[in-house]
Amino acid sequence: MRTNIDIDDDLMAAAMKAGDFKTKREAVEEGLRLLQRKKAYAALLAARGTLFWDDSDEAWAKARQERERLEAVVQEPTIGYVVKPAPKDRKSKAAEPNTKSGTRSKSK
Question: What integer is the mean pLDDT of 61-86?
Fold first, then answer.
């Protein structure tokens, strides 16, 4: 997206020197990425102390059992398709002679 902005020349020069950027665009885009990361880090820090991680063997075994139990419950039932044989008294269309032709038979 093209945008024209008025940026303080001293601030831009300091940012370009600090980040070793070649263009002003690179400096601005990196600053925007930094703001985005900062917001994500703040969200992670807000979750601090609310998550619990148990790395013991018992916890891994329990998690594995729970995952296997869920997979067994969630599995879709398989649908079996049965091919029924054709009735024996019915003749195959391929075996029947072709009675329809371009000419008519004359019967007298």
Answer: 79
Q: Is the pTM of this model over 0.70?
A: no
Select from 46, 5, 54 the least CA-distant residue to 28.
Answer: 5
Do residues 73 and 66 touch, judged by C-beta distance below 8 A?
no
Helix locations, the chain, DSSP H: 9-19, 24-46, 57-74
Q: Rounded distance, CA 8 to CA 28, Å?
A: 12
CA distances from 4 to 11, 24, 28, 66 (A): 17, 12, 12, 55
Q: Return the closest-CA partner of residue 19 out of 35, 7, 31, 3.
A: 31
| Rounded distance between C-alpha atoms, residue 15 and residue 34, angstroms | 12
C-beta separation of 21 from 15 below 8 A = yes
- Indicate if the pLDDT at residue 79 is higher than 80: no
Question: What does the radius of gyration of the chain's CA atoms come to, in whole angstroms?
Answer: 38
